Amino acid sequence: MPIVLRHRFVTVAATAAAVALGATVLTACGSSEDAEQADSGPVSLTYWAWAPNMDKVAALWNQKNPDIKVTVQKQASGDDLVTKIITASKAHQAPDLVQAEFQALPTLVSNDALADISKEVGDVKDAFAPGLWQQTTLGSDAVYAVPQDSGPMMFYYRTDLFRQYGLKVPTTWDEFAATAKALKAKAPDKALTTFSSNDSGLFAGLAQQAGAQWWTTEGQKWKVGIDDPATKKVADFWGGLVEEGVIDNQPMYTPAWNKALNTGQQIGWVSAVWAPGTLTTAAPDTKGKWAMAPLPQWDTAKPATGSWGGSTTAVTTDSKHKAAAAKFATWLNTDPEALAALVKEAGIYPAATAAQTGGALAQAPDFFANQPDFYTRAASIAKTTAPAAWGPNVNVAYTFFKDEFGKAAKARTKAGFGDALTAMQAATVADLKKQGFEVAR
User: CB neighbours of 220 closer than 8 A, spacing ≥ 6?
Assistant: First the structure.
């Protein structure tokens, strides 16, 4: 039987499932009549996307599919786009397709903005890592998007400085802590890395790797587990390193952070597959001196990584041509020619496992020419992406992370990290209740 979760803005029917998008059992209530109408004759679709040069990729489709023309409209990303989509949907003026980040899907679904396309795209499930496909599914059989790009997390380190200081690449988080301490003892002016509070996605990915489930459901109620044991373990780990002073506590993406990477003041970075692009501009003098390795593990018997970033292609409930839109979404994210164009034109790391090696990714990034197997290793790591659990108010949780963990990092106390996690949990629960969701204790 369907579960009905009532929200002050919408009423959403859903089917319970143990491992749905964080058990986010929310099914959109769009017009089935519109969604199911036959797509006969010429069709025009509008696609809102923020990745660069998506119009060039769509042009390949248009050349081969004259009866289904796709027009790309460039948009801003992040919360701005989510708000714009919801606003347009309420006015029944949303586009046919949208590029939506994984963590935004529950918010869009709970506002009845996305259509269930499981019948149209269900057969491409095996083209993606289970942990990625799971993030697009709600309920036992509902699917709201096709994975487009992903950001499997990895550890980047300066090979020359690791050799200079006699350090080994850490394979576990305990070894990571020991490496940070060993470096600080040998070179007090250097740090292995920094704990940054200005990008919530990094911490979320680390918690994901540890097995965190931040949003789940219990009966007809949401359950928030941001302060669950897995996340507490991650917060205590990084808080302990900051308190000991063996890693830095400064935010990323600042001139000071760029300088630290470029001069070797920081010799490592926990990041994702897209890191080479950032290092190219942040630390240009270090080209050819970095290498990538799997993220350190909590349990080496069960390799896992988190995901930092990534997006999907979703069909909206406003689309009058659901089947045609789903056909394009499938082509865009599974067709070899389309995937090669996404890599070349949009500069993304495709979610489809078949496109993660060879072809456009046959050679390592220019900045990592010294590691020719870069993408082969990345593809292996990507297969271990752990499931993520998102809810309808990720933006609130992320905002409080930045505020509370910013204070904790500045104070340099392990206890402060625990307090920050507690505050983040409380704020997220309070917001769900304010929006009219029922929340389990």
Answer: 3, 4, 5, 438
> Which 3 state secondary structure label does DSSP give 127?
helix
Instruction: Kindly write down the DSSP assignment for every residue of 173-218, as one continuous string.
Output: HHHHHHHHHHHHHH-TT-BS-B--SS-HHHHHHHHHHTT---EEEE
Q: Using alpha carbons only, what angle is made at residue 285 by residues 281 and 287, rounded to the nearest 5 degrees?
A: 80
Element (H, E) at 90: helix 79-90
State the greatest distance between any 2 C-alpha atoms of the chain, in Å, as a whole number.
Answer: 71
CA distance 2 to 27: 9
C-alpha 120/C-alpha 342 separation (Å) is 22
pLDDT (average), residues 144-154: 96
pLDDT in tens, 196-255: 999 999 999 999 999 999 998 887 789 999 999 999 999 999 999 999 999 999 999 999
What confidence category does residue 78 fall into, taking pLDDT thresholds of 50, 70 and 90? confident
Give burial (CB, 10 Å; 0-12/13-18/19+) of 285.
exposed
For residue 310, give the 3-state DSSP assignment.
strand
Output the DSSP codes for 324-382.
Answer: HHHHHHHHHHH-HHHHHHIIIII---BSBGGGSSBTTBSS--GGGTT-TTHHHHHHHHH
Give the residue-averaged pLDDT of 112-132: 94
User: 191 - beta bridge partners?
Assistant: 266
Q: Assess contact for 407 and 232: CB atoms under 8 A.
A: no
70 beta partners = 45
Confidence of residue 6 (pLDDT cuts 50, 70, 90): very low
Q: What is the pLDDT of residue 3?
A: 27
Between 24 and 319, the higher pLDDT residue: 319
Return all residues near 273 (Cβ < 8 A) that are at least 6 apart.
Answer: 150, 151, 152, 154, 349, 378, 382
Structural domains of the chain, with CATH: 3-150+309-364 (3.40.190.10), 152-305+389-435 (3.40.190.10)
Residue 325 · residue 46 · CB < 8 Å: no
Task: From residue 120, give the alpha-carbon distance in Å to each of 17, 35, 54.
Answer: 21, 11, 22
